[in-house]
Amino acid sequence: MTLIKHAVVAVGVGLFSSVVMAANVVETTSLTGFGSAKYPENFKHFDYVNPDAPKYGKVTFGQMGTFDNFNRYASRGQPAAATGELYDPLMLPSGDESMPTTHSSPRKSVIPMITPG
For this UniProt entry, which residues form the secretion signal (predicted)? Predict the structure, then answer.
């Protein structure tokens, strides 16, 4: 009987705490440490980017050593240098701001909003 009581109390506390936590959720288009965001929600490009820059050419970066795997987290083999540049991070710093997130009021949890495309 006490096991059922404990289970009911645990479920009740869980539901109550989720309702209380949901009341403090704040949706934002950017996450800043202090102040307000520099860029609006639908900005076209960063201030330090030239949108009319030429989009052609070739860049080659040399690296000493050998590799046999492009997966840098593989348990066997030698990963190629700079394989971290092959994948996009979940949250990309702008160099001077912006990223949509949902966070609780005292920022105990942060949920990034992943948009398709």
Answer: 1-22
